[in-house]
Amino acid sequence: MSTIPDEFQIKSLLHQDTYLVNGELKQWTGETSPVFSTISSTENYEPTLLGSIPAMGEAGAEEAVASAQAAYDNGQGLWPTMKVSARIKCMSDFAVQMKANREEVVKYLMWEIGKSLADSQKEFDRTVDYIY
Asked: DSSP E strands: which ranges in the chain?
């Protein structure tokens, strides 16, 4: 029987199968890398598998850098030339979406980096407050 409370157990793995480039989420069909917690929930004290992420190599990194460079466009891209009020709205909208996933993010903070519930909640809330 697990000593980990039911609401904090990993019951399904989180497999990230998209990546962001050029302002859009693209489907990843290549190799993936497993993500483990150093916290064990197994009887053999093995690391707990949390899920997987794209194992992007040099080509993916170059695509992301080229995308960022094109988006910035020597200070003439959409984001750097956008009115401050519009950027604030974008970040506020992001924070609202982020807050909608607080419980899940807090749970993964606890598993991935071993923070307590209270510390994970504080870190999440501090990040949202910083955005505002």
From this structure: 14-15, 18-21, 24-27, 32-40, 47-54
